[in-house]
Specification:
The protein has a single domain, classed as Rossmann fold (3-Layer(aba) Sandwich), CATH 3.40.50.720. The protein is about 50% helix and about 15% strand. The chain is built from eleven helices and seven strands. A seven-stranded parallel β-sheet has the order 3-2-1-4-5-6-7, with helices on both faces. The structure holds NADP nicotinamide-adenine-dinucleotide phosphate. The site of NADP nicotinamide-adenine-dinucleotide phosphate (NAP) has 28 residues, from α1 and β2.
């Protein structure tokens, strides 16, 4: 059965890795979409094109930092000059700051999170919307996080940035009701490379244990997009965080933070103020 997204032109940010890459591949192979992927690493994009093999002609890419307003304006102008009409924008690019207390972040870390995780979606939506509205099926899907549904110790900037994405998306959904599909995706822990900058490996086993495999997360996201769902929550942990936060806004976050603290993993040592196991071994 044909779906609304079949044969459309879809822009996906963060298409060089993880969720964005797998989403791009599925849309190309299963829904015959043309995907314009956006990310910074040419090496990763080139290897993705190679992996696509016979489908490579359905994938174009542009390399730019999504946190810059000017980059979005230039990208918009490039699309217009080349007579490319996008139908769907998926704002998926994101970074996960290392888990730590707010007071320990540098200004650069604070700025990086809000710029990449939030401003990118605000800038791209503002700049791209008039062009998207020329499509018969205009759509914007923003990838936030379960961290937008419940903030845990150690995730201040990430939770704040993703909560801002949630607010932006919900407001746009009402502003454009009946004119465009606006979707919000809130994944829980998902197995991708996003944890690469955490600076500790102890605790990754625990995170991997509760993480949803990337292909399952993308399955759920794709199904939700095909059904034009406004709100797509992914994973057992994502759903639990959403529910607990609604029922117990303070105690819920305390409970989840306490569980993480109880495992005393290095990943959260600085956040909860205990000594890293790796530091103990070195003594
Ligand atoms: N994995 C999880 O547990 C999880 C949970 C909740 C929410 N999410 C969200 O899901 C989305 C995808 O994450 P993922 O897990 O697939 O992570 P990932 O594998 O690290 O992919 C992140 C993508 O974003 C791109 N990117 C990062 N900063 C960028 C910038 N300034 N400009 C352009 N592109 C940039 C990266 O490409 P380059 O490095 O080539 O620039 C990469 O393609 C993110 O928004 C993330 O916050 C993930």
């Amino acid at each position: 059965m044909a779906k609304w997204i079949d044969n459309k032109t879809v822009i996906i940010t963060g298409a060089s890795s993880g969720i964005g890459k797998m989403l791009a591949e599925r849309l190309i192979k299963e829904r015959n979409c043309t995907v314009i992927g956006v990310a910074r690493s040419e090496k990763k994009m080139v290897s993705f094109v190679e992996e696509l093999g016979d489908y490579a002609s359905k994938f174009k890419y542009k390399l730019f930092d999504v946190s810059s307003y000017d980059n979005w304006q230039n990208f918009h102008d490039w699309l217009v000059e080349n007579n490319i009409q996008p139908d769907v924008l998926i704002n998926n690019a994101g970074v996960l700051p290392r888990f730590d207390r707010l007071v320990n972040y540098t200004k650069e870390e604070i700025d990086e999170s809000i710029n990449i995780d939030f401003y990118s979606a605000a800038y791209s939506s503002k700049i791209m919307l008039p062009l998207l509205m020329k499509s018969e099926t205009p759509a914007i899907v923003n990838v936030a996080s379960s961290a937008a549904l419940m903030a845990l110790g150690g995730t201040s900037m990430y939770s704040a940035s993703k909560a801002a994405v949630k607010g932006l998306t919900e407001a746009m959904r009402e502003e454009l009701r009946g004119e465009a599909y606006i979707g919000l995706v809130c994944p829980g822990f998902t197995k991708t490379d996003i944890f690469r900058n955490q600076g500790a490996t102890d605790g990754m086993n625990l995170i991997n244990m509760v993480s949803t495999p990337c292909h399952k997360a993308v399955n759920k996201i794709l199904k939700g997009i095909l059904r034009k769902k406004s709100y797509i929550v992914v994973g057992f942990d994502g759903n639990a965080m959403g529910r607990f936060n609604r029922l117990m806004p303070v105690q819920g976050s305390r409970l989840f933070s306490s569980v993480i603290k109880a495992f005393k993993i290095d990943l959260f040592a600085s956040t909860f103020g205990y000594e890293k196991k790796s530091a103990k071994k070195d003594k």
